[in-house]
Amino acid sequence: MELQANPQLLWFIGIYAVLMIGIGIYMSKKVSNSKDFILAGKSLGPLVLMGTLLATWTGSGSISGGETSVSYSFGIIPSFMLMIPTIVGILVLYIIAPKIRAFGKYTISGILEAKYGTSARNLASIIVILAYVGIVSYQMTGLGFILNLTTGMSVQLGTIIAAVLIIFLAMIGGLRSVSQTDAISGFLMVGGLLITVPIIISVAGGWDSIIANVPDSHTTVTGGLTTVQLIGYLLPSLFLLLSDQNMYQRLAASKGDKSSKRAALSWLLVMLLISPAISIIAFASRSIFPDIDPGMALMATTLALPLGVGGILLAAAAAFIITTGNSYLLSAATNMTYDIYGKYINKNATDKKQMVMTKLFIVILGVISYLLISYFPTVLEVQMYSYTVYGAGITPAILAVFFWKRVTKLGGITSMVAGVVTTLVWELVLNTPFDLNSSVISVPIAIIVLIVVSLATQKKK
Fold first, then answer.
1. 145, 155 in Cβ contact below 8 A?
2. What are the residues whose beta carbons fall under 8 Å from the beta carbon of 302, sequence distance 6 or more?
3. What's the pTM value of the predicted model, to 2 decimals?
4. Mind listing the pLDDT tens digit for each residue in 97-121?
5. In angstroms, rounded to a whole number, what is the distance separating the alpha carbons of residues 359 and 171?
6. Structural domain for 189, as ranges
7. 123 within domain boundaries
8. Is 247 exposed, middle or buried, given 0-12, 13-18 or 19+ CB atoms closer than 10 A?
């Protein structure tokens, strides 16, 4: 089947955008201080909290990478395996949610400083800001490509629309408004994906026809990947989720420990529905459109579906991207305000001043994200490593705070440095030897360094 854009799909994007903007403006009127802006006044109940966790985690990486690309390129079973990191990560967050709330910190850097000192905070802040700006840039360009494919809109105009929506929704009301738009978007995602699955299987001629039209390797357990290569696809998302500042901020913003735990379990159950749904849709797309970019597999199906269903799926995809983008942008701006501005530039800043500066940093970082993908597209290749840089550089150190009392200050800091340096050397200097993701190397090294250095620097009783 040939791809042919359908401009009528723009109506669904327009309706979604107007709804999100309206909700954002309404919720912004309830923001009175920085606690409201950053942590939604610690008022998130289990339903809204589950929705914002879901919408934040499932973004452009899922619908144009992750499950989508793996299912299209390697097969349905390897794609299903990508659920494993998410399940493990959510279960760990469920366990430590009360401890996250007890810390009462706005950023991951604040938690690391409490355990390892100022150097750890500074290093973590740099890692978070650089990684999150890269992630935001992918959301912007992701929506631009999707709108170009489905509606015929130019990639540049689609990217500008994404940038404006992401920046506006993050700035207008902080987490107070973002959490509400996230929750609505999350439920739109679930509905759109579940409706699409049976219809796209039918459009493709049934499951037997799909199997007959894909390469034989796509029905094997590994899809032609070696075991180590497959592990390389699983580790980055796991170690990002285990220390993702967005998730920590949302759990800290819950009404109480019961709300955070109920939300985490609900999030897990919903992911068990939508992650396989994405995989199945992309797998069916491999049968219908055998010669397209793997990242466009899910979105291409909107052109093969009835207009109403395709429009809902497109709006759901936009929801994936915009909610993830504004969440990571808000989180990075929080680091700029509390870890850099408030720590080194204006230590006596008032609460109102901090909130104003956070909004200003949202705009500045949002513009940088847009410029990154508009004028320096090759930089994106470096930004692809941001997940692993973040996961290897921060996750072992942050998990040790909660699970290993014997970790030392020097052990935590050297682990962070080892994770970042190993990732950059493996990817940029050695140019990914053996086609192995750097996470297979850098994560184990960061953990080993953490343990060895901590044991070597233990204080004698």
1. yes
2. 6, 9, 150, 310, 311, 313, 314, 317
3. 0.84
4. 888 888 777 788 888 998 999 999 9
5. 5
6. 50-378
7. yes
8. buried
